[in-house]
Model the fold of this input.
Amino acid sequence: MSASKATGEPTIDDVAAAAGVSIRTVSRVLNKSPKVNENTRRSIEAVIAQLNFRPSRGARALAMRRSLLIGLVHNDQNALVLDTIQRGIAGVASRSGYELVVHSCPAEDSGVIEDLVAFAERSRVDGLVVLPPVSGVPGLAQALNRIPVMAVALSSIPLSGFADVVVSEERQAGSDVARYLLELGHRSIGMVNGPVGVASAQERRAGFVGAVASEPNASLIEAAGDYSFEYGVLAAEQLLAATPRPTAIFAANDIMAAGVLKVAARLRIAVPEELSIVGFDGSALTRMLTPALTSVLRPFGVMAATAAETLIARIEGKDVPPAGSHPLELVPAESTGPAPV
Done:
């Protein structure tokens, strides 16, 4: 009994019979093979639409000798950021007939490579999108090449060894934040840094510190952070106890900026009249806070979609231009204003 008779669903046999072609020809159309002439392709596509035929994902994967799975690898505790990235990749993957598998790596560099290689071999993914800070682990790209598995990375700096890298210009963005605060008249400025050794934190700090240093009358005080809300609170308590007290604080991500805002409210320091606060990421959190948070917008969804499109094109042997870099945008909101007189 054919599958169409057993389930009521049309099969590839039904499409081939209705179109008057072989099953192999239908398969080539489904797999977008260039070996089918345009008239035949259009005829088969019309039959597919008429019968409302949906090819089996398993059968298609078997025919293409692929799993049709893409892995997203991360060690990101920011659920708002991760959700946007997952949606960006999943949308592209779904339209291209792939499914998304998400894998969280351990935080320690020493275990990341072994963990990720084991995941790639176990899941049999066709390719990986690797997020920072995992993408910056030394030797990771080379280990993936030895398996081999195709991988595209997101990063704040160029990386070698990956099929492609989508770079966000975070050093420039840090510089933009400093110039924005200086133009508002702030000269006593604080910064809550990200984790030591993480490229994104280093890039944001380098851009910000360099631009502040260009103003002879400006002073900068820094506090350690790790991208967590708790560290944002601790850093804010340190910075706001300093003499002179900063009139502006740049936190290296939105979650730490929320911690700064909370401490300011507890100390009854008016924002932005007495203290301006800037975050980084431009996540949905910026709109949830009161006052709304000025932040650097990283277009996570766009960057993730670009990475997925590039990865799938590489998997399928298509020529694609390098993913390149993405400029970031500082979006002023209610948490920043002119320096107090």
User: Anything to note?
Assistant: The CA atoms of residues 313 and 319 lie 7 Å apart. The two ends are 85 Å apart (CA to CA). The chain has a mean pLDDT of 90.
